Fold this protein.
Amino acid sequence: MEHFAYRNFELCCERVSLPALAADVGTPAYVYSKAALLESLLAYERAFAGVPHVVCYAVKANSNLGVLGTLAKAGAGADIASGGELYRALRAGIPPKKILFAGPGKTREEMRDALKADILMFNVESAGELRVLDAVAREMGVRAPVALRVNPDVDPQTHPYIATGLKSAKFGVPLAEAVATYEEAARLSGLEVVGVQMHIGSQLTRTAPWADAVARLAALVRTLRERTIDIRVVDVGGGLGIRYREETPPTHAEYATVLLPVLRELGVTVLVEPGRSIAGNAGVLLTRVLYRKDAGAKRFVIVDAAMNDLIRPALYDAWHEIRPVDEARLGGPVETVDVVGPVCESGDFLAKDRRLAAAEEGDLLAVMSAGAYGFAMSSNYNTRPRAVEVLVDGSGYTIVRRRETYEDLVAGETIL
Ligand SMILES: *Cc1c(COP(=O)(O)O)cnc(C)c1O
């Protein structure tokens, strides 16, 4: 997270001082670094430069139009999981021919919208979905380009909620059924079979599961080619982990090195769907200390951000580094605290039993590595307006989503 560093004793995002930013836009605030976003995208571009490829950013990680537009301008495609994400990707200027549509529950309406937009590919997750997509495409007089999401049954060794490539997962078609499902797809005249896809999990910190999975996928591609089903595209999914604490995930280059020999031999176009590894370390959640509270057995630091703003600690037991924005605090006393929000739930915490530089009321804290699955998973629980989002570029910044107002929160509701 080198784009977030102390200058003149204040934590900055690029060249913008976070205390100055907080004074201007308020807290809680999500703050993103444009340079960090582009750096990771370009690292993928470089790592896969040796093969035809498209980096399809997984929109669900951070779907802000300012973020998407920045990535679109730098050449990114999009991996979308809903009609809403299709709308965002198109609004942000991502070319339709760089958009992939993923997810196990696409509706007919979403399929129609994506066919109308003429996207690159549908990643289909079941035989039932294949038949519906075929029918929708034929009604429209077009052919839908498809890949089957194959479940390679490998253990990605990550949190169970984000492990998706095991036999027991709801995702994809089991490898054992893949050939039969492809043969059915090849017979459907509304479909054009172009590829195979996998996505084995998220926050992966070892390359071995990918090596296993891509070898299984390559064997499938060869079998399909023997049966005259010509696979031209292999989509290896997303999932590259980031450093939250002491993880040492592979670099973009190490990740590509594991996949590329197999893919090059197949002579395919390679698609990657990174989300977290692009946005995660490009953002922080900036929050202010409201109160300190000593409850005898425990000490609490109560801040103005809560589980509705960042649910990862409550949902996945995720660990986010918390830094004082005032660097001078680092020279002072240290204490063990729970950092909690104002929401009426015991699960409303950002950190538990954490050794932190003692923070006083009014202090700013930065919850690090919050650029992915942060704002995107936020809610209005407790009728809390969602935070403002700011995109920093050098010494300037843009409010890319204004803080919600109370009016926003009741818009669309009716009193009888
Ligand atoms: C969530 C998801 C991704 C992105 O995963 P990251 O771990 O954020 O890189 C990519 N592809 C699919 C199908 C997904 O569901």
Summary: The chain has two domains: 4-32+280-410, 103-272.
